[in-house]
Amino acid sequence: MPHTKQSYLRNSMQKITAIIVDDEPNARRALRGLLEENFSQVEIVGECKSVPEAVKAINRFKPDVVFLDIAMPGYSGFELLDFFDEQHLQFKIIFVTAYSEHSLRAFETSAVDYILKPVRLEHLARALKKINVEEHAVALENRQYQVLKENFTNQLDKKIVLQTAETIFVVRMEDIIYMQAEGSYTRFYTTSHGVLTITKKLIDFEFLENNGPFFRTHRSYIVNLNHIKKVDKKEFILMMSNDAEVYLAQDKKNLLLEKIIK
Prior knowledge:
Elements: E1 16-21, H1 25-38, E2 42-48, H2 51-61, E3 65-69, E4 92-97, H3 101-110, E5 114-116, H4 121-133, H5 138-153, E6 159-163, E7 168-172, E8 176-182, E9 185-190, E10 195-198, E11 214-218, E12 221-224, E13 228-232, E14 237-240, E15 245-247, H6 253-260
Helix pairs in contact: 3-5
């Protein structure tokens, strides 16, 4: 059943002002069309084809949200952040990007909102809904954007943004020993921050298996292969660098051994 315009609107959604930043006219036109046809609460106050234009428009219109392309000539979308300090970053950024495996991993680990090109209506609705239900946390979001930028540019020191019920942590990937499912939560065992109980399920972190030395050994565990001290092939148990024991599913044993014995 096709979605109707009304199905994407929320009566409780406040008015949102927005700026679209993309060097491709067709991309700007397509996004504007989706917004105008389906989200009457969103007022587009400016369109820009470069970061310098966007800086001027943001200072002039002070939008609630900026839809920001990354790959643009001159300045990349990430460099928009360099023109604002934390105290003046009073707008939310939704990155609009073409697909690449590397870019998706970077977005996932930094917990930053993004929409893939070509933009789909349901993805746009999801991003706008977050603006409605979440208050601006300027310092937090700025740190997340910086982690995203670092993860795009630095291949050696990858980081992930993890959120507990009360605090945001930025953790280096190499400091994660293993993850354990705990109902609707996930426990991260780390060398740098101890044990962190994260408000997401373990399935939400499966993408890490394609983002470094992580391997799902069991339905309840994802481990960092670099932190394995010992493999008990008879009992199907792993000894980790913090001396914790982690279960290994029988059907995972051979694949694990292939990965750690090279």
